[in-house]
Amino acid sequence: DHIGGDYEMKTRTGAPVLIHEADAPRLEVMDAFLQEFSQGKAKTFKADRLLHDGDMIQVGETIQLEVIHTPGHTPGGICLKLVGEDLLFSGDTLFQGSIGRTDFEGGSFPTLMKSIREKLMVLPDETAVYPGHGPGTTIGYERKYNPFILGYMTEK
User: Fold this and answer.
1) Angle 102-105-110 (CA atoms, 0-180°, nearest 5)?
2) Rounded distance, CA 133 to CA 82, Å?
3) Residue 102: which of 146, 93, 145 has the closest Cα?
4) What is the DSSP pairing of strand 94-95 with strand 98-99?
């Protein structure tokens, strides 16, 4: 649901497609991947840039995003942190009161929880989190109320 329209968007807008290197092969087998979800066909293509943990993405002249590799939902799952601000785009890694699915090919619950524990729960409580689906939240709220994080953080 996050890559099916990438080729069309790139064609219409000229925007480059960026993806973590571990998920890049999915772009080259889009038809098979999307048919698994009954979402029809999509054009296969290669990304304009492969991302890695710690990379910076420049948006315009003033916005810089830091890539935080958070595997678990997919091998190349990422979050994007707005540099200089307590703001995170979490994609399908972390949701308000939940976490990303791990039952798809390449998904791993222990890996996702490790990503959340080591990469996201170290951020300040006031960090605003905007997920790929659903309402926004904060790191502090999730640390305090998210049942997946509460259960996993106390077990480990």
Assistant:
1) 35
2) 18
3) 93
4) antiparallel
Q: What is the pLDDT of residues 62-112, one digit of tens each?
A: 999 999 999 999 999 999 999 999 999 999 999 999 999 999 889 999 999
Question: What is the average pLDDT across 9-29?
Answer: 90
In 3D space, the residue among 5, 6, 13 whose CA is nearest the CA of residue 47 turns out to be 6
In the prediction, which pLDDT does 126 show?
Answer: 98
Amino acid symbol at 49: R
Sign of CA dihedral 70, 71, 75, 77: negative
Are 69 and 20 contacting, i.e. CB atoms less than 8 angstroms apart? yes
* H or E segment to which residue 110 belongs: helix 109-115
Which residue has 């509460």 as its token pair?
A: 150
Compute how many other C-beta atoms are within 10 angstroms of the C-beta atom of residue 153: 14
**Residue 39 to residues 17, 24, 47, 104, 126, Cα–Cα distance (Å):** 20, 19, 21, 15, 37
